[in-house]
Amino acid sequence: MAGTDDAVVDDEDALYVLTAVLLTPAQFPSVLGDDFPAACAALDLEPYAEGYGLVLGQDADGARWTVVVDDVSLVAVAIAAWDCGMEHELSPGERTVAAVLPGWPLAVAVAAPGVPAPHDPSPEEGGRPPLSPPGSDAWGAAQRRLGADEVAQQWAQWRGQMDDDETFASPDTPEEGRTAQPEGVRRALEEARGYLDSPPPPGRVRSSFAPGGARMLRVDGPGWSMVARTDDIAFVLLDEEPCEVLPVGRGPELPQLLHALDGIATRPA
After folding, report:
1. Is the pLDDT of residue 31 over 90?
2. Over 50: is that where the pLDDT of 189 sits?
3. FRET pair for 74, CA 20 to 30 Å: which of 107, 170, 172, 232?
4. CB 74 within 8 A of CB 24
5. What confidence score (pLDDT) does residue 126 get?
C-alpha cells in the first residue's frame, strides 16, 4: 500500500492524507467484494466505469475519513510517485469529491503527526456506521480474499514451499486421486470455467504482470478465490476451509483454463 504523511488539504476541514488506493474494475481493494460492482456497493457507490480513487486520512481531531474522488488519474499519479519513494501532495479539489465516508475500509499502519491518534468520528444521526477493516479473529469472505491478496503478493514464497516433485491435485485428476483435495476446489475450477461462457461482473477475473512474460491471474467467486500464474500452478482459498491455501497442479487442463481466463480478464490501463 502506497503512503505518505505530509500531504494536506489546507482549509478549515483539513484532511491529513495518509494513503490512497484505486477502486477501478481492474484494481480495487478485494476485501470489499468479489468484483468491482460489489466493492462499489460496499461503499454505497455507483459502479462508475471509470472508477474512483479512495483517499484515506485523518482530520484535525484525528478522526478517520475515506474521501472518494472521481478523478482516478489524480490518485493514480500520487500512488505511482509514492511507490517510487517520491514526495507528492494529494489534494483533491471539491469538485472531484464523490463521497466522504467515516472510517477506513483498510488497515493503515501510519498516522498523521501532530494530531490525536486515529479513531472513528462521532456517529451522525442517520449516518452510516464507520468503515473498518475485517478482523483477524474470524474467517469469512473478506479474510479469504485478503489471504488471496497475500498469496499473489508473495507468490515466490508460497510457490517455494511446494516441492517440485510433489504431485498436486489438478482439474483432470481421476476420482480416486482427488481424495486429498477438498471437493470445493473442483467446484471453484468449474465455476471459473463457467466464466468463459457467461462473462462475470467486471473485476471478477483480473490479470496483471508477472515475470517472464507470464500473467498473474486473480479469479473470485461465491465462496472461493483463485490465484494463478499462466505459466505455473494455481492456489485456491475456500470459505469452508479456514486459513488453508490449496495448490492445484497444472495437468493438461489447467494451462488451457488459465490462458482462456486471461483472455477475458480485466487488465490495468
Report:
1. yes
2. yes
3. 107
4. no
5. 66
- Region 201-215 average pLDDT: 96
Q: How far apart are the first and last CA of the chain?
A: 19
Mean pLDDT of 194-209: 96
CA distances from 62 to 19, 22, 77, 193 (A): 15, 23, 26, 47
Distance between CA atoms of 125 and 157, rounded to whole angstroms?
47
Taking every pair of C-alpha atoms in the chain, what is the biggest distance, in angstroms?
Answer: 68
Decide if pLDDT at 84 tops 70. Answer: yes
> Smallest Cα–Cα separation from 54: which of 81, 85, 21, 30?
21
* pLDDT for 160 beyond 50: yes
Q: What is the pTM of this model?
A: 0.87
3-state secondary structure 137-164: CCCCHHHHHHHHHHHHHCHHHHHHCCCC
Beta bridge partners of 228: 217, 234
CA 263 → CA 81, 117, 256, distances in Å?
30, 46, 11
